[in-house]
Amino acid sequence: MKDLTLTQEYFICAVNDKGKLSSFNVDRLVCLLASGMLELQLSGCISIDGGKKRILSGSGKSVSVTGPLPEEKAFLRPLYDYLNQGKPVKMEKILEDYHYSFSGRRLNALIDSIGESLAEEGLAQAADAGLFEGVRRFLPTKDAINRVVDLVRSELLEEGEVTEDIAALVILLEKSGVIREYFSRYEQKEMKERLAAITKSPEGAMVKEMLDYVNSMLDTITVLITVFS
C-alpha cells in the first residue's frame, strides 16, 4: 500500500460523512487548497514568496512554479497546471479563482482528482454528485481514517521525530476545525504545545513557515469574504 500524502491525508479527515466538502465551510476548503500548495512546495514544484509586507495581513504573497510535477503527485495536476502560468501568481488571485469563480470548476477538479486517487487505492468509495452538486463525493474507508489518525498520534503524542508532512497536517486540521472530530481536548492541547515547541526550535523553521503560510491564506480569505459579501 502506498504512503498517503499530505493532501490525501487532509482530504480523508476533512470530508463529511457523506463524502463531501461543504461549500459553506470555507476554512476547510481553503485548507484543502493550502494542503495541495504545501505539498507542491515540499516537493520542490513551487515556491511561495512572502512579497512586501502590507497593512492587510496575508497579502503580498505570490506563487511560482519551480519544477516539474512528479508522477506520484499526479492528483495535484489541476492545481499545478493552474499555477503554471509562466509568471508568479498572487495569493489573492488564487483564492479568488478557486473560491469565488462562478462555476467552481477549478476547486471541483482538484477535489475530484484527489478523491479519485484515493478511490483507486481502495481508500475511498466514489459516489455520483447529488442534485445541484458539481463534483462527485468520495467517502473514505474507516481503515483510511484510522490510518491517518494513528499516524498523527504516533508522531505528535509520543516522543520522537515529527515529520514536516505530519506537522503540516496537524496545522491544517487545527486551523480548519477538523481536529475536534478526531482528537480529545487533551490530545489537541498536547499537540498544540508540541507544535509550539517545534516552531521555536532551530529545526522547526519550516514548520513555522507553514503555520504562517496557512494563517496568511485564512486571513486573506476573511478579507475576500468581506469584499464579496
TrEMBL record:
Q: Say yes or no: keyword Membrane present.
A: yes
Q: Which GO terms describe its molecular function?
A: phosphatidylinositol-4-phosphate binding
UniProt keyword annotation of RNA-binding present: no
Q: What main location does UniProt list?
A: Golgi
Keyword terms, alphabetized: Golgi apparatus, Lipid-binding, Membrane
Q: Which GO terms describe its cellular component?
A: cytoplasm; endomembrane system
Q: Which InterPro entries match?
A: GPP34-like (IPR008628), GPP34-like_sf (IPR038261)
| Topology with respect to the bilayer | Peripheral membrane protein
Q: Which Pfam families match?
A: GPP34
**Can you say what this protein is called?**
GPP34 family phosphoprotein
